[in-house]
Design brief:
Blueprint lengths: L3 H6 L10 E3 L3 E4 L4 E6 L2 E2 L7 E2 L8
Antiparallel strand pairs: 1-2, 2-3, 3-4, 3-5
Bound molecules: zinc ion.
The site of zinc ion has 7 residues, from loops.
Length: 60
């Protein structure tokens, strides 16, 4: 599990923005719509490893 202290230190490598914890499996950057996976409790802060996150937006 990622601690709040660690989450405060971590930032998106792309936009330096804040990250949001998505369960135990990843860290979401809302600006980039990318989820950085957490492997064995260690966040992988690499864009190559990140998963594209589809936000459900109702408006066009
Ligand atoms: Zn970002």
């Amino acid at each position: 599990m990622i601690s709040k202290e660690l989450l405060d230190i971590l930032a998106c490598p792309e936009c330096k923005g804040d990250l949001e914890l998505k369960g135990n499996s990843g860290l979401l950057c809302k600006k980039c719509s990318l989820i950085y996976p957490i492997k064995d409790g260690i966040p992988v802060m690499l864009k190559e490893e990140a998963i594209f996150y589809r936000q459900e937006e109702g408006k066009r």
